[in-house]
Model the fold of this input.
Amino acid sequence: MIHKKLIVPLFLVLLVIGIVAGMKIQNAISDDKVSDQVKKFADVLGITSRYYVDNIDTQKLTEAAIRGMLDELDPHSTYISQEQLKRVNEDFQGSFDGIGVEFDIINDTLTVVSPISGGPSEKLGILAGDKIVKIDGEACIKISREDVPKRLRGPKGTKVIVSIVRYGNNKVIDFEITRDKIPLYSVDASFMINSDVGYLRMSRFAATTYDEFMQAMNKLKGQGMKMLMLDIRGNPGGYLEQAFRISSEFIPKGKKIVFTKSRTKEFEEVYNSTGGSFTELPLILLVNEGSASASEILAGAIQDLDRGLIVGETTFGKGLVQRQFDLFDGSAFRVTTARYYTPSGRLIQKPYEGGKYMHSMKLDTLEGENILHDKDMNNTKDTTRPEYKTSKGRTVYGGGGITPDYFVKLDTLTSYTVQLRRLNLFYEFVENYLASNRKSIENNYKTYIEFRDKFNVDDNMLSNLKELAGKRKVEFDNTAFNRDIDFIKISIKSQIARDLWGNEGNYAVFISNDEQVQKALSLFYEAIKLMKMD
Done:
């Protein structure tokens, strides 16, 4: 008879043995299932290679099968060829020659996630969300990620025509783009909007982003910055580590910034702030549909921890974590291993089914003031989205993406003004204008701030622009022209500032007519009040 004292230890030993045995059996079954499918594919490939009517490229077929398999999983698991992998690394490390867009394949369509700041596509007016349907007249629906750089990149100075379908416009718009060297700086501009508010625009999270960010912040601090407007509109993301380090600069030490959940425990991580130099600085973030991934991690942490206000439009909703696995031939593949969650537990990823997104994150029903997140302007709630609480008890919405504290939708441009941008007529006009007026402007305006505040685009300049547009076969539309007059004027003015003072001059002038920026400026009192809430 077994002594009673031995019963419990013996039971535990048997339990452990049972668990281990069960795991091994499960692994064996799982391995058998995988082995069966590998054999199945090998049989099909071997038989096809042997008996198909023509010679076949087995490497091409294998890569197509891998892509097809990953496409069944989610929108972001993907195969990367050897050539493409080199280009992917370039995107976050150096520079390249091309048209200057961040892209994704969404529902089989090549979609612009964001034009790269300062690149030729941005200058022509290509926007986040534009769908490229043709390249040099050839349809590109169902184009692979690997083929996109082959079609869009090329030596500096060469041209490519892309045909675009834009949200809200049924017509296909052709853009002739001259390829150029695409710089990969992260901080596009940093300057003082007024004596108290600093402005910093950050276009990506690359290898040098944190260093660029700190350099810009220290410059602004030295210029007397008391509040910060951080513009991450159109920022498609990048390195999580860079977003984490920047978030830590604003968030007190020990606070949770983001965490991941996975079926595999080793892929679950929690990122807690290490603390930084700007944890007491009043803060407003500008976001839009082009703000994705690492941008959403930053915005979600700032909002959930009531560290600042979010202004603009609902973000993209990219919250899947990919791990890259290198293959023997220099190629690689990325497979989703986890999901990102904000500190309150909100899933950043918007809904998808297989490789397709189920809907856009545009939230027209929530447009308007929503600082307290308890109602919108019409006292109606979006009942389709789950609710969460911030650290100070405010309600925020889940369901994918980051919903702003204050929704400000920018007006769409008329087709007349779209043509002016598409044909690069603002740039052409300014080049002609500066040919005879550069010295006068340089003598009269010593800084871009002085130029911003005092220079006016007069009627004579507008008449010359209309005349130039007419020569380029753009039929004048008086109603459209008058509707977009403020945008047309600021586009001319900011292009002059870009030529004379670079990116900072351009942004300093352009945002002076930006509704989202102007609204954010009026909300700093609310941001300060939020920081002091108990």
